[in-house]
Amino acid sequence: MNKLMTVADVVGQLRDGMTIGFGGWGPRRKPMAIVREILRSDVKDLTVVAYGGPEVGMLCAAGKVRKLIFGFATMDAIPLEPYFRKARQAGTLDVMELDEGLFQWGLKAAAMRLPFLPARAGLATDVLTHNPELKTIASPYADGEVLLAMPALNLDVAFVHVNCADRLGNTLITGHDAYFDQHFARAAQQCFVSAETVVERLEMDASTARLSTFERSLVTGVVEAPLGAHPTYCGPEYGWDLQHLKAYSDSAGEEGGWQRYLETYVNCSDADYLERNGGAERISGLPLPIF
Amino acid sequence: MNKPEFSLAELMIVAASEAWRNNGELLASGLGIIPRLAASLAKLTHSPELLMTDSEAYLVEEPIPVGPRGDYVPKYAGYMPFERVFDCVWHGRRHAMVGPTQIDRWAQTNLSVVGDYKKPKVAMLGVRGLPGNSINHRNSFFVPSHSAKVFVADEVDMVSGVGFKPERWGPGMRHDLMGIGVAVTDLCVMDWKGPDNAPRVVSLHPGVDFELVQERTGFPLLKADDLAETRHPTTDQLALIQRLDPHNLRAKQLKGNPAGIRTTEEVRA
Question: A single GO molecular function, which one (chain B) (predicted)?
């Protein structure tokens, strides 16, 4: 079994109008090598489902997003995601804005092949007002409590970046938090994983095996993408690139800023990308953020 | 004995730490430097039973200093990644202090957009965890710059966190699990314990009078019966704050890092 693919192979699977999810959280462990390949492709009209970071802003800036399903878009140290804001403020972006716990519930419903899961989050707020497709449901038991029925967030494709993978599709997340990647993998028809390192076959002991949060049977393809989460944080290997994120953020306020960003960091080879960010050594030495 | 000098940020940290007094054994989450220092101070002084995280993925039994840690090694007490935070939120044993962009008279909060929802004047973060937090456990608010832009005259532009407005609650929805603590601002401490959950001023920071707070608030305020001056930090509290914030990040949280004791003219300036 060999699931090794290139980013081009992976993005070649995408079709206009698909619903795609991204693992990670804000500016943390985002599959950015895959995102850059999507930016280079012709695919459009995407519904993007994410705990949003710069991938959301970049896909918005490139006009790829028809609808965004999200609880937030942020880059943490730079709280407001500039291109997400631009798209949002232009009124061109269709959004389904959810509580971040409710969002998880939608992924879990999809993962368990349920139409919905009940929740309290979102009741008595404008999450309901602005998402008329969200319905409430009364508990069938004696309590009769009225709850929000969070619909399944079924994904066509999920993209996840992990620390290590093997050709079989086994994965290890060695950072402090696995976020909700396992639910993304399970909520999707196909899940593609990019990894800092890919080996023939992962060798684990019982304690490292615990760092595998979803089964290889969920993984359609594996891409070797060293430093593939840059400029986001990929602990314990490297921190986020605040200098890059700041320049990216500033570009949103400059005339032709996005075009320049694209030319410098997207429409180039992997080798150029690394060089323009100070080289592999600099990136792998980026300090881990202190929370 | 000389009275200690202190900054407004330090006064607010001490005032905010009171939010977690007598809460019992629950997760204290202070989002942002001042609320986090406040929760940490609460745990180190009056409420050692509080649970706390390292703001990333672990529970710690000793509050972690903010900023670069040098050779400080966290004392881990358990694992608390985001997924478990949500479990904790939905279970209800948590009290968070958050900084919404807008707050209204019903204690409803907004972190999503200012202006029209479809084409907002300002897009912020998104609702984040406010809907789930607010309906499931107690929340307090941190407001670094008290104004009618934050404490809005009407309802907040996008209700992200629930509050006490009856029309928002449909029949059969449980609103007994929510709780509102206090709002700690650069002018005062407020709560929503007036008749029918009306907002009240509980204490005024040095140099602040009730009229000024009312002027800078978009909705009518009541005075608490025991309205007093916000308690000043003690020497011991200031020493603990210094230990928790060795790089003095607290000095950068309020514009101009004002002194804790100000004259009425300085406050109004």
Answer: transferase activity
Q: What angle do CA B58, B61, B63 make, to 5 degrees?
A: 85
pTM above 0.80, yes or no: yes
Could you read off the pLDDT of A121-162 as tens digits, one per residue? Answer: 999 999 999 999 999 999 999 999 999 999 999 999 999 999
Identify all chain B residues contacting A176, using CB atoms and an 8 Å cutoff: 56-58, 81
Q: Which two tokens stand for residue A236?
A: 């314990």
The mean pLDDT value for B107-115 works out to: 98
Whether B81 and A177 lie within 8 Å, measured CB to CB: yes
Mutate to test the interface with B, among A78, A126, A146 (most CBs of B within 10 A): A126
In tens, the pLDDT along A21-77 reads: 999 999 999 999 999 999 999 999 999 999 999 999 999 999 999 999 999 999 999
**CATH number for the domain formed by residue range(s) B8-166+173-268:** 3.40.1080.10
Q: Are the C-beta atoms of A185 and A218 separated by less than 8 Å?
A: yes
**Torsion over CA of B55, B57, B58 and B59, rounded to 10 degrees?**
60
Q: Domain spanning A7-98+154-285: which superfamily?
A: Glutaconate Coenzyme A-transferase (3.40.1080.10)
